[in-house]
Amino acid sequence: MSLILFSVSLISSLIGAISGIGGGPLNIAVLYFFLSMSAKDAAISFIFIILFSQVTSLSSTVITGSIPEFAHMHLVLMCIGGIGGALLGSRLSKEMDDNKIEKFF
């Protein structure tokens, strides 16, 4: 299943990059329609796709030593925002059924 998710992510991200709209909407649509996932399952799978993509990107940046200069306060604020968004999103996801999530997407 993970190989299928990887392939779907790669293809839909490529199409998204070519069309200039980003991979997010396409990835969720492909997971939802072509792999017959529920809206919640597609969103959760997409979050894992983003996680693995960002871990790979961060690892590459650290290994090559190409970490750009940045204000440390920005990093702290982004971490707080990310954690807050994850907590809020988790709470909203539990309260919403699949029909509401489908309308949202």
UniProtKB/TrEMBL annotation:
GO cellular component, one term: plasma membrane
Subcellular location: Cell membrane; Membrane
Keywords, ordered alphabetically: Cell membrane, Membrane, Transmembrane, Transmembrane helix
Annotated membrane topology: Multi-pass membrane protein
InterPro entries xrefs: TM_pro_TauE-like, TSUP/Inactive_protease-like
Entry's transmembrane regions: 6-35, 42-64, 70-90
Entry annotated with the keyword Cell membrane: yes
Main location: membrane
Superkingdom, taxonomy of origin: Bacteria
Family: Belongs to the 4-toluene sulfonate uptake permease (TSUP) (TC 2.A.102) family.
Name this polypeptide is given: Probable membrane transporter protein
UniProt organism field: Clostridium paraputrificum
